[in-house]
């Protein structure tokens, strides 16, 4: 049986590039209608153009609400519902990483990572859950990270933020399960995107030596797991945080 998302409507935050854009493409391949949420309208529109080049018949739109603003997110979701009638899938993928030594952390660094990696997941989940509850079904997929299990040597707030994502995933799966809403997370290992390109070589090289599948993850590897979780193939899976890391032993 092919995995299909036919007639499903999906929002992907941070859907403009990297893992998010790979999720957008996988969902479109599976025939979903996809809404790309970017940090700026300009980049969201550019991603939509790129998507249409690859999939000329796709049904997609681009938006750029501030993910930490409850009103903006609520209104953006209402717009999606006006256009497509429903929201079936929310992929909370937008995130930033950090490799800042403890002593150098500023208030701004703290706010930045807490806002995008934790608060935005909460705000978007809350707004989407309202529509999903009404429909009596839905699916939320969060992008965590394997460092949420192991920590990392620098930038302690990044693993901390992703541990919070795991906590939200498990708690919301319990709160929303009775409403027919599944909440899961993918936890990527080192994956070839701009985020990894920005990390110091000294941080990435040792990680690669500890991957049994002997290669860095590709964004598509993560997107395949997100597609599985979004689909009916995962109908009895909720509250799971699934490592997609080539078996990394960190
Ligand atoms: N690349 C990896 O190795 C890796 C590993 C584990 C987890 N992750 C997680 O995967 C997710 C995607 O990361 P990526 O590697 O594709 O990174 P990326 O930097 O290529 O993409 C990040 C995405 O988040 C969006 N974004 C950034 N700041 C934003 C803001 N303020 N508001 C809205 N959107 C914003 C960007 O526009 C972009 O679409 C993140 O949550 C990241 O923590 C990545």
What is the CATH level 1 assignment? Alpha Beta
Listed once per kind, the bound small molecules are:
nicotinamide-adenine-dinucleotide
Strand order, biggest sheet? 3-2-1-4-5-6-7
Count of structural domains: 1
CATH superfamily: NAD(P)-binding Rossmann-like Domain
Query: How many beta-strand elements?
Result: 7
Structural commentary:
The chain is an alpha/beta fold. It has one domain: Rossmann fold, CATH 3.40.50. Helix content is 47%, strand content 14%. The protein is built from nine helices and seven strands. The chain has a seven-stranded parallel β-sheet with strand order 3-2-1-4-5-6-7, with helices on both faces. The longest helix has 29 residues. It is globular and about 45 Å long. The mean pLDDT is 96.
Features:
250 residues, alpha/beta, Rossmann fold, seven-stranded parallel beta sheet, 9 helices, 7 strands, 14% strand, binds nicotinamide-adenine-dinucleotide
What topology does this entry show?
Elements: E1 9-13, H1 18-29, E2 33-37, H2 41-54, E3 60-63, H3 70-84, E4 89-92, H4 107-135, E5 138-143, H5 147-150, H6 157-176, E6 181-188, H7 194-197, H8 201-208, H9 219-230, E7 241-244
Parallel strand pairs: 1-2, 1-4, 2-3, 4-5, 5-6, 6-7
Helix pairs in contact: 1-9, 3-4, 4-6
Residues 14, 16-20, 38-39, 67, 93-97, 116, 143, 145, 188, 190-191, 193-196 line the site of nicotinamide-adenine-dinucleotide.
């Amino acid at each position: 049986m092919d995995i299909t998302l036919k007639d499903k409507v999906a929002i992907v935050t941070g859907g403009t590039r990297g893992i998010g854009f790979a999720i957008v493409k996988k969902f479109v391949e599976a025939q979903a209608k996809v809404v790309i949420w970017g940090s700026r309208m300009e980049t969201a529109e550019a991603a939509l153009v790129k998507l249409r080049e690859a999939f000329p018949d796709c049904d997609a739109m681009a938006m750029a609400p501030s993910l930490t603003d409850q009103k903006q997110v609520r209104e953006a979701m209402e717009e999606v519902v006006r256009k497509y009638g429903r929201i079936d899938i929310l992929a909370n993928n937008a995130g930033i990483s950090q490799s800042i030594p403890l002593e150098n952390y500023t208030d701004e660094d703290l706010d930045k990572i807490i806002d995008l990696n934790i608060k935005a997941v909460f705000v978007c989940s809350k707004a989407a859950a309202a529509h999903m509850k009404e429909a009596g079904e839905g699916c939320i997929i969060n992008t965590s990270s394997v460092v949420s299990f192991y920590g990392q040597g620098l930038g302690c707030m990044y693993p901390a933020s992703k541990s919070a994502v795991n906590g939200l995933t498990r708690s919301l799966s319990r709160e929303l399960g009775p409403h027919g809403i599944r909440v899961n997370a993918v936890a990527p290992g080192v994956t070839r995107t701009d985020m990894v390109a920005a990390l110091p070589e000294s941080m990435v090289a040792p990680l690669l030596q500890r991957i049994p599948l002997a290669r860095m993850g590709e964004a598509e590897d993560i997107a395949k797991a997100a597609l599985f979780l979004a689909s009916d193939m995962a109908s009895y899976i909720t509250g799971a945080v699934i490592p997609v890391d080539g078996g990394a032993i960190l």
